[in-house]
Structure formats: structure tokens, C-alpha cells
């Protein structure tokens, strides 16, 4: 069968495409990364910020059981370590998971990673995790395998993870001091009995550190997720960052606590708040120079499917998938060829944009919110955006520093004022919004809140658009638009 015609345009953008970020050179390997490491991360949307513009992950919810209790988790909801609250639509058996993976791979060409992130713990529910991965690699060998775990049972399975070529493991580590841990974990279940308080947190801490060291010794890339809980572990995460860096963590991802009374969690019911966006950013900024930070996490559901920030899980519930589904590699193969070309283009554009910003000779720092549907372009309408990617432009260059989730402002052609107020509140601290299109009314209301919104750079490379805005503000010569 001949490969189907495919382009980034058809998958992620409404216009032309092109792409890659300053962290990625042409063919998009960053200068500070070993080729062998780049090979492992270049198609992983969580481990490479650049890759997240092009590649998608799929979580298969095969691991419902858990061996600890976190104060931010209610089992009726997703694992809060790796998801935003919301029930998992359906738990899967390993066979169902394989069927679903094939169905997704046939129509989502960006798919590159299969993750097991709950809704419980992938290492505690080990038999299901292992059976699922074994069956998936039989069907589609080039998919990367990834797990997320609280770490308690992790040391028991490192050797098998290695045997199965699982290159990416996430451990959620919220503390290195058991006194702090006792305020996060009421109990753990370990060696056939329940442990509570500081003793439980001490055991968990020791197992997490052991697991991290074992993975690092085997060259398995390990990301540490930490939930930032104001007044409980926010300051303490500076210490956590040092510990995990010393033990070989590849990335550290600080995630904001999501706490709502409706979720029925201990923290939700007792009024423990999560951090505001600017508090999270301030902590992340303080951690620069320590373990390398991930700043593009979307706190996915345990059954998420698609590009980060664009969950398509509801399109692939079991009742929509045929019993007999066979894998067709053509779309994924064709897409990869397009991405290889795009990465080179985007790397060149980003390099040029970074030089312009650095050369602007301005002491300014701008926070810029970008509406994007993927592909590294400014290609979403303001009213259609459900999130904005947040970039910082400063004399150091251009970097992605986070994202802000919003309610979609425009539905059915109309925008609601109440929704717009929420969007503006979510954009606290932002200087400029870049989008493909915006109406006069939201533009005026954003302006009144001190935020300039522009659609002049629609479908442009994100970094090119940012550098043009930054240079104009600094009086330097702007880049010519290439879109
Ligand atoms: Fe899933 Fe996690 Fe693997 Fe990614 S998610 S198991 S590493 S494939 Fe990614 Fe989602 Fe953030 Fe997790 S954006 S919550 S970091
Ligand atoms: Fe919930 Fe995950 Fe914590 Fe287990 S590890 S209690 S599933 S958040």
C-alpha cells in the first residue's frame, strides 16, 4: 500500500508548517545533548519540549490499584500525580488496551509514546503493566514505552523495565524529609502491612531514592514529578531538586496542586489551596541551574490521548473501536517524514529569532501567551483556545515557561463576557497575547487589563512571532514575516 499524503498542516495547523526550537538544532538535536540521549527523547512529548509540538502520547488505564494514599488523591478520580481531576472514562484490560492503541495509531499519526500512568500505580499493578507493554510491542514495536509511579514498588521492577526497553520512567517525589512527607501521605501499604505517619513517609522516601538510583545506573531516563503544595512542600522542593539532580534525574517537573472540594480529596475538603500561576513560575525560576526543569507538563488524565494540551480520549472509547482492528503503519510513517523536514525549518527560524532577541540590547523581559494547536505555530484563534503556551522573551533568549488553561471563550460563534473575565484572570502577569485571530471586543477588554493581543503573526513560527514583537518593543529591526 502506498503511503497516504500527509502534512503537519493537515494534522496540526490551518496553514503551512515548519518547526523546531532553540533547544534543538537542525535535525533538531540540541547542542548540549548527547546523540544517544537525543535519540531517546526526540519523539517523546514530555521529555523534549521541542518534540511536544509534534508528537503525542497515549495513556492506557490498565493499572487501577495503588499502594499508598496521597492527600491530593481520591480514587474515584484520575491519579492526580499524572492527571487533571476527572474520572477515567474506562479502565482497560491489557487486551483492550492493545486494541485501543492500534485504533489510535491508525488515525493519530503523531502517536509516539504509550504511557501507563494509573489511574493507580503502574509498578504496584505490575502484572497488568507488564502484560500490556509486552502485547503492545508485539504489535507496534517502534512505540516508546513510559510509566509513571509513586516509587514504592519501583525497585522490585527495575530489571524487568530494563529488559522490556522501557526508556522513560517518572517518579512522583514530593519530599525528601519524612516530616514533610507525613503531611502529604497518611499511609502506605508495604510488605503486607499498612504504615502511617513519619514511618510511612520514611519508607517511601528510601524506596524512591533507591529506585531513582537504580534507573540512573541503567541509563533509563527518569523524570521526577513533584506536586507543589503551598505551605507544605513549596520551599522544600528546592531541597528535592538538589537530591534528585545528585541521583541522576533527567528532568524535574514541578506541577501545581489541583485541589477542589468537589474532588473529595483530603486537601480539597480541608481547604488546602494550590499555587497561583505566578507562584509556580517564581519557584521554577528559583530552581533554574539545578536539575533541568520540564515546563510544558499538562497534568494529563490517566487515559489521555493526543498532543499534550489537546486530549482526544473521548474519540477512542471502547464502544467506538471495532473488535477486529489491525495496524496500518502508513500514516505514522508518512507523518514522520514531514516532521523531519519541519524540524530543520523550525530550528533555523528559532535560531534566527533567538539571535534577534539577544541582539535587541534591551533589558526587557516579556511574558507572551501563545494560542497554538501544535506544530510550533501561532495557529489557534483566541476564542477557540483552551490553553495558552507561555513564553518568556528576555536578553537570555526565548523560552517556554509554562501554560495556562482557560475555558474556551467562543462557542458557536459567540463569546460570553463571563468566560472572557475568567480568561483574562488566567492571563495574570502576561504582557502580550499572540493568536491567529481575535475580535475587537476581546482585544479591547484585554487591553483594559493591560494585555496587548495581536493576530498580526497568525500561522508564523512561535519564536519568530515573539522575536518580532520583542524587537519592535526594543527598537531593534524586526524579522520579516515568513508566513
Ligand atoms: Fe505519560 Fe508521563 Fe510518560 Fe508523559 S505524561 S507517563 S511522561 S507519556 Fe507528560 Fe502528562 Fe505531564 Fe505526565 S504532560 S502529566 S509529564
Ligand atoms: Fe492516587 Fe497516584 Fe497517589 Fe496512588 S500514587 S494515591 S493513585 S495520586
UniProtKB/TrEMBL annotation:
Superkingdom of origin organism: Bacteria
Occurrences of domain Radical SAM core (ranges): 52-301
Keyword field: 4Fe-4S, Iron, Iron-sulfur, Lyase, Metal-binding, Nitrogen fixation, S-adenosyl-L-methionine
CDD domains per UniProt: NifB, Radical_SAM
InterPro entries (alphabetical): Aldolase_TIM (IPR013785), Di-Nase_FeMo-co_biosynth (IPR003731), DiNase_FeMo-co_biosyn_sf (IPR036105), MoaA_NifB_PqqE_Fe-S-bd_CS (IPR000385), Nase_CF_NifB (IPR005980), NifB_C (IPR034165), rSAM (IPR007197), rSAM_sf (IPR058240)
Pathway(s) it belongs to: Cofactor biosynthesis; Fe-Mo cofactor biosynthesis
Cofactor: [4Fe-4S] cluster
Residues in the signal sequence: none
Any single Pfam family the record assigns to this protein: Nitro_FeMo-Co
Membrane-spanning residues: none
Annotated function: Involved in the biosynthesis of the iron-molybdenum cofactor (FeMo-co or M-cluster) found in the dinitrogenase enzyme of the nitrogenase complex in nitrogen-fixing microorganisms. NifB catalyzes the crucial step of radical SAM-dependent carbide insertion that occurs concomitant with the insertion of a 9th sulfur and the rearrangement/coupling of two [4Fe-4S] clusters into a [8Fe-9S-C] cluster, the precursor to the M-cluster.
Family stated for the protein in its record: Belongs to the radical SAM superfamily. NifB family.
The protein's name: FeMo cofactor biosynthesis protein NifB
Gene: nifB
